[in-house]
């Protein structure tokens, strides 16, 4: 009974104390294992960092950007880490900075208007990039353009760029010569988007531009349509000379000496009026247009705004060169055009009026009457010619 009591007294304690020892041993071993693993990983990290520092080139000491803050240990550590990162970035940039592709100059649309090409800059690459070779479908072609067509691709005619470049250079020479001789050049482009190119070309060539609808009869019946437009008299250096307003009131309206049309299909009436009045024309002829409508055709794509800008810019530069030559000759006292006739200087007109007020001025009055009679005879002859021309045209139409 004593043995059982002793076991009963110590059994509860033995039951509570015996299982705790294995758990303590297990937790202790797990903690030691984790600590050893962490120590090993830190040692490996430090060894790798030492190897990297040994292999890296010597680094320059970067001064602190904030000297007062260097006294603080935390701020100094942050500044040092930023400086190290910056130095490593510069080292990597020096090693791999040259690797990669380079960005070359690309197409900028505004350059064709701000700085258009000159006739010397016309190349096949420029025309190809502006899509000047794209024609229309083969079912829409005009057989008169067969000499300008290079071939067919996917049912579309391809315009020969060699023919385009040759005809563009020839048209540029025509514009340059007309501008050198003081002629009026009219640039016409009535399609959407052509207004800026036409205005820029006329600005360079000191000509005129039209980007709205052409008024029929502006050339054949210009005295009635354009009679209210202001005209002025200028000298060889393009300086206005006042005092001729009364004499210009009865003079015929001005007509262009050369017309450059960017879309001949929509301006057939304009080209017809130019042909009736023997005004040479330059036109961009696509594969669906008739090249006989204009005097100097330029086979190209009239639907591409970039192509129109190239052609208009080249012709504008040619006109600018011609105007420059004319002004240089004018500085030397040479006039490259025929001056206007039947104009009297204002000083001479004043002298005539004073002489007419004095007695014995009947001779001057008789001379003025004779001049008026001659002018009336010339007008009658001109009217008879117009009537005969209209009659001849009517006979041709009837035949």
Description:
The protein is α/β, with parallel strands linked by helices. Helix content is 53%, strand content 8%. The protein has a domain at 115-219 and 255-331: Rossmann fold (3-Layer(aba) Sandwich), CATH 3.40.50.10490. It has helices at 2-17, 20-55, 73-96, 111-114, 124-129, 161-180, 195-205, 222-225, 245-248, 268-276, 305-331, 346-357, 362-398, and strands at 134-137, 149-153, 156-159, 185-188, 208-210, 258-261, 281-285, 296-299. The strands form two sheets. Strands 5-4-6-7-8 form a five-stranded parallel β-sheet, sandwiched between helices. A hairpin with a 2-residue loop joins strand 2 and strand 3 (156-159). The chain is elongated, with a radius of gyration of 46 Å. It starts with a helix and ends with a helix. Residues 60-70, 360-369 and 390-399 have low confidence and may be disordered. Residues 56-75 are annotated as: Disordered. Keywords: Ribonucleoprotein, Ribosomal protein. GO terms for molecular function: structural constituent of ribosome. One of its GO terms (biological process) is translation.
How is this structure best summarized?
The protein is 53% helix and 8% strand. By secondary structure, the protein is an alpha/beta fold. It has a five-stranded parallel sheet, with helices on both faces. It has a three-stranded antiparallel sheet with strand order 1-3-2.
């Amino acid at each position: 009974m004593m043995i059982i009591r002793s076991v009963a007294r110590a059994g509860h304690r033995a039951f509570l104390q015996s299982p705790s020892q294995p758990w303590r041993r297990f937790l202790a071993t797990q903690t030691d294992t984790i600590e050893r693993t962490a120590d090993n990983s830190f040692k490996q990290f430090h060894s790798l960092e030492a190897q990297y520092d040994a292999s890296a080139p010597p680094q320059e000491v970067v001064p602190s950007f904030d000297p007062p803050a260097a006294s603080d240990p935390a701020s100094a550590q942050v500044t040092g880490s930023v400086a190290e990162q910056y130095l490593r970035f510069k080292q990597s940039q020096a090693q791999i900075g040259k690797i990669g592709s380079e960005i070359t100059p690309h197409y900028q649309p505004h350059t064709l208007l701000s700085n258009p090409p000159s006739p010397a800059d016309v190349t096949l690459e420029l025309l190809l990039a502006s899509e000047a070779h794209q024609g229309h479908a083969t079912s829409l072609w005009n057989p008169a353009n067969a000499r300008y067509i290079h071939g067919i691709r996917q049912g579309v005619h391809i315009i020969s760029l060699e023919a385009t470049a040759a005809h563009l250079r020839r048209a540029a020479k025509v514009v340059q010569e007309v501008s050198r001789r003081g002629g009026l050049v009219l640039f016409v482009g009535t399609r959407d988007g052509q207004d800026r190119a036409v205005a820029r070309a006329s600005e360079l060539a000191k000509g005129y531009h039209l980007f709205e609808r052409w008024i029929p009869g502006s050339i054949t019946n210009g005295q009635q349509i354009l009679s209210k437009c202001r005209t002025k008299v200028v000298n060889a250096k393009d300086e206005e000379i006042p005092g001729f307003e009364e004499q210009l009131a009865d003079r015929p309206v001005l007509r262009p000496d050369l017309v450059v049309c960017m879309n001949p299909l929509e301006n057939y009436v304009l080209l017809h009026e130019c042909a009736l009045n023997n005004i040479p024309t330059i036109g961009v002829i696509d594969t669906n247009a008739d090249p006989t409508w204009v005097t100097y055709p330029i086979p190209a794509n009239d639907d591409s705004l970039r192509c129109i800008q190239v052609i208009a810019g080249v012709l504008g530069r040619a006109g600018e060169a011609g105007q420059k030559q004319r002004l240089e000759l004018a500085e030397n006292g040479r006039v490259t055009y025929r001056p206007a006739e039947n104009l009297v200087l204002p000083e001479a007109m004043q002298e005539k009026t004073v002489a007419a007020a004095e007695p014995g001025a009947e001779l001057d009055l008789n001379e003025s009457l004779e001049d008026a009679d001659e002018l009336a005879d010339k007008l009658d002859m001109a009217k008879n010619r117009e009537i005969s021309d209209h009659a001849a045209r009517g006979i041709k139409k009837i035949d």
